[in-house]
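USER:
I wish I could look at a protein chain and see how it folds. I am handing you a single protein, as its sequence and its fold in token form. As I understand it, each token names a local backbone shape. I hope you can help me see how the letters and the tokens relate. The protein I mean follows directly.
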Amino acid sequence: MAQFINKRENVVTEAIDGILSASRSKLARLDGFPHIRVIIRNDWDKSKVALVSGGGSGHEPAHAGFVGAGMLTAAVCGDVFASPSVDAVLAGILAVTGPAGCLLIVKNYTGDRLNFGLAAERARGFGLNVNMVIVDDDIALPDLPQARGIAGTLFVHKIAGAMAERGATLEAITVAARRVISSTKSIGMSLDTCTVPGSSKENRIPAGMAELGLGIHGEPGVEQIVYSDARTAMDAVVRKLAAAMDDKPHVALINNLGGTSVLEMSVLVHELVNSSLGKSLSHIVGPAAMMTSLDMRGFSVSVYPAEEADLDALGEAVSLAAWPGLSQVTPIVIMPMPDGLTPIAPLPSQHDQTRKFLFNCCDMLISAEQDLNALDAKSGDGDTGSTLAGAARALIKAIDRLPLADHAQLLRAIGQELSQTMGGSSGVLLAIFFTAAGEGASSGLTLNDALKAGLIRMQEIGGARAGDRTMVDALAPALDALDVSLQSAAKAARAGANLTATFVRANAGRAVYINAKQLEGHIDPGAEAVARLFEHLAI
């Protein structure tokens, strides 16, 4: 897979210099590239306890992103997923440690433990007061004698960092760090493995599966489970965490493992807060990418039963963009709609034939969702099917409050429903179409003429004409032919839709941004939806 790198052997050093260039001169690095890669605070005066952490690169923003006032004093960076050398760690210790001493915060991996441990011994030989804590928060493999250190490390960085900034002693900070470590529990889940720069990707996780408990270096997890949606994924994570937690209020840290979109992470927070664990969560850190695994499409959740002093430390503001801050879990606030926008609901009425007709139309649009999405992906953003199916599901849900026996009011009600539930420009245009058609029917027009009036209004506002490669290319001929028969309308709609595949330029909709080669041979998805609907009704 293509990546934005130059040479594999230079990726870490170039990334570090990139971080420094954007640090507003708050960070510096020790002279020693490429073997000694240590980032330190530019304002450090050695008067307080120094906090040094680090490990392999590839977990950005950890660890360099957390160097600054209120968190780390220095970060020691190894190659991607490889521990830094003893000399590199020792250089970091010597550069920042003064009379107050130094605490090394190390994740529980053999290389990190050995290299940081030996560097600590050598630093003590220089007469420095150095302590080391080892983070082992991963609960994925309960029988493992040495649990891995993952995103729960951030709790230690922030709480210890706040204490150090306030001038606490090395002994007090070490005691607090060990207390945090002993109570922090974490587990991760991913839909895919990560891609190490310059290496081929390991496709270990099959489509339709998710891996639970995998490590931040791409190590295999405890099990692969069937993936269906965000709720079941979070439930699997919650079950593991709940078994390891005690009955106290907890802070949850929601970590993006690198390749999960911001939108997905917000959905995962929603699921966590509404899960069986939600009642135990008082505060949240994130969601954010904090301890990543390159581009892994996954997330992790860390929980810690924070005491009042810990909450103060976690909530203390820092100027580091990588730290997302602490938020209290609060009920969702819902404000009333502004005056004039609260819809006036029509009086519902029943009409079995109309009800059956609407269900028939909606079922067809829902069944065509994937096909229309695939077609839209060739000339748009791939969501036409989902947009129409979502509107169809909303209409089905609302059907018992619609005026089914009054077609003029029904058209208006459908327009109102679509304006609220259907996204994108297509939702607005169809809302205009049905609302105008309802007005036409109320003024005495026949249903066919009312629909034509709706189309005219939609074209006036939307600007699309026949030949512009939109749903109009199928809808206009279908409505003209509807005066003859439904079968004629279906044939006209199909002919109009098929014709759009010959148009190599669109004059409306998102397809206007697509070049001719991508458009040629592909039917416009909106026109295809109209054609399928008429064909379905004509059967």
